[in-house]
Description:
Elements: E1 3-6, H1 7-12, H2 14-22, E2 28-32, E3 35-40, H3 43-57
Parallel strand pairs: 1-2
Antiparallel strand pairs: 2-3
Amino acid sequence: MAIRISTAEARKKLANIVNRVAFGKESIILTRRGEELADLVSMDELKLIEYIEDLIGTWPK
């Protein structure tokens, strides 16, 4: 399950958040005023997402 953190808090703890995502393999959702804005994922997760997108793009119709 992804952790949710406000953009204000993320600015204060950016180095820690980057380490948690990169090395702890956590997904962190950034929020502003309670609204989800973005999801920070590790490079491994991003590569997997891109791989899946490529597979879906070549899926027979």
